[in-house]
Amino acid sequence: MKYFKNAVVILMLTITPNLLFSQIKPLDAELSNYQYPYEVHFLDLKTQNQELKMAYMDVKPRNSNGKTILLLHGKNFNGAYWKQTANDLSDKGFRVIIPDQIGFGKSSKPQSYQFSFSQLAENTKAILDELKIDKTIVLGHSMGGMVATRFVLLYPEKVQKLILENPIGLEDYKTFASYQTIDQAYQSELKNTAESYKNYQLKFYYDNKWKAEYQPWLDLIVGWTLHPDYPKVAWDAALTSDMIYNQPVCYEFKNIKVPTLLIIGTRDRTAIGKERAPKELQPKMGQYQELGKKTQQQIPGSKLVEIDNVGHLPHIEVYDKFWNALYDFIK
């Protein structure tokens, strides 16, 4: 009987991932068949000789405290994963603006576009200008932290406070990893599958411990791989990977003048291009328990909140700890 039970467990572990992935629906390039947690608006952008649409959510509180906060998503994500954060911020009186950057989420996926953090920051400012928002708090996670950094450096007069949640770009990846061409990056993106995405997230985000609440954010990017539009998405992913590699922000942290909070899950080991770095350098990349402290020293007057034994996504993995750090800084 004991042998039989063990065999059943092994069988379930074997087939469950396949059953799980088989339930994921294909998603087109603009996620038109996926419902976001709040109403989605679109800003028409005329940029780089193209007419593009930039999606965003505008969550207005019932009882306003007069403050606005801008939530900027990471590379493997979109604005939808800010649902709980936006809900709690709105309950506290904040107006919450959540863009999908061009090339991400429900926004346009241009196939001929010069991606830069300055351009993404300019696009983001265009939403605030459209909404006539003069001042905002800015929170950026992962790649959104690099966008947020460039935004505050370009438009410091518009930023009241800055929060960086496990941002990438705390180190210059060019000093570790060799360059890959955009064509090489594109071919690599085309190989992504449900299994490869989940394995990546398990390794870098969740310390090989999967929970049901992580599944929706995996489903979104996996759904793209199942749709004929995926080459369009993969091409923009390659372009943005090139942007991250070639446009470091870490040398300019010293120029940030607004009150800044770093929320750092110290277990995080995310680093762009780690697989292309020499083996002796790979263990030195993405050491967030060191990078957080180093960055806090570089940003004048900044505050650091470290969350031990937490990976790349504090606002998903340990929401209460993330929220307490965030709200204490902005209330």
Q: How do you describe this structure in short?
A:
Helix 9 (288-298) links the parallel strand 7 and strand 8 (303-307).
Can you tell me the CATH class? Alpha Beta
Query: Strand-residue fraction?
Result: 15-25%
Please identify which CATH superfamily we are dealing with: Alpha/Beta hydrolase fold, catalytic domain
CATH architecture: 3-Layer(aba) Sandwich
Could you estimate the helical fraction of the residues in percent?
A: 25-40%
- Compute the average pLDDT: 93
Principal-axes geometry comes out as: globular
Spell out the helices and strands N to C. HEEEHEHEHEHHHHEHEHH
Helix and strand content put the structural class at alpha/beta
Note the gap between the termini.
58 Å
- Main β-sheet: number of strands, strand sense, barrel status? 8 strands, mixed
Q: Identify the strand order in the major beta sheet.
A: 1-2-4-3-5-6-7-8
How many helices in DSSP terms? 11
Low-confidence spans: pLDDT under 50, at least 5 residues?
1-20
The radius of gyration over CA amounts to: 20 Å
CATH topology: Rossmann fold
